[in-house]
Amino acid sequence: MASFDRTIPPGGEGKISIYLNTRGYQGRMHKSASVYTSDPGAERLTVGIAAFVQVPVIVNPRYVLLTGTKGRPVKRSVEVTAGLDRPLELEPDQFSLEGKISFRIEEVENGRRFRIDFSSDPEASGTFRGFLNLKTNYSEKPVLNISINARIKEPNE
Residues 6, 67: one domain? Predict the structure, then answer.
């Protein structure tokens, strides 16, 4: 979102304010805005903002997408990393796709990095939407939600 002085006299100065809402973002991000002027030498300028959004828990990727064919399990992984300077603990809380998708949590680096492996059930088919909620020991992020979307076709589709 931006606000700016609509009219600036020739040779004068104006103010442009750009606001960046980082809610829902994590890690590096870059946004830009175009500024249009009546100056023949600089009719369009680009202004950029770069930021690093630090979050208590980093999830990469932020959601799971499984697409494949029934009878051949599809696998995807998500990496969860502690964003604070203290050990992270994860504990399964709620899982909405039992019997269609399975998951396994592996601690890759003690208290710092985890890998969550998701796999479609070989007998499951259809379109599924669900989630895995994990409890953490961080008061800043007590519950971690991972969205899961799956489209498993029948072999003849």
Answer: no
CA–CA–CA angle 60, 62, 68 (5° rounding): 95
Chain position carrying tokens 């799956």: 150
Element (H, E) at 90: strand 90-95
**Whole-number Å distance between alpha carbons of 137 and 135:** 7
Q: Are residues 39 and 61 in the same domain?
A: no
Query: In terms of residue numbers, what domain contains 90?
Result: 57-153
Tell me: do 76 and 36 sit in the same domain: no
31 and 69: one domain? no
- Is it the case that residue 115 has pLDDT exceeding 90? yes
In the structure encoding, which two tokens stand for residue 113, read together? 């990095």
pLDDT of 13-54, one tens digit each?
A: 888 888 888 887 888 888 888 888 888 888 898 988 888 888
Name every residue whose Cβ is closer than 8 Å to that of residue 95 and which is 6 or more positions away in sequence. 103, 130, 131, 132, 133
Distance CA 107, CA 80 (A): 9
Of all residues in the chain, the percent with pLDDT exceeding 70 is 99
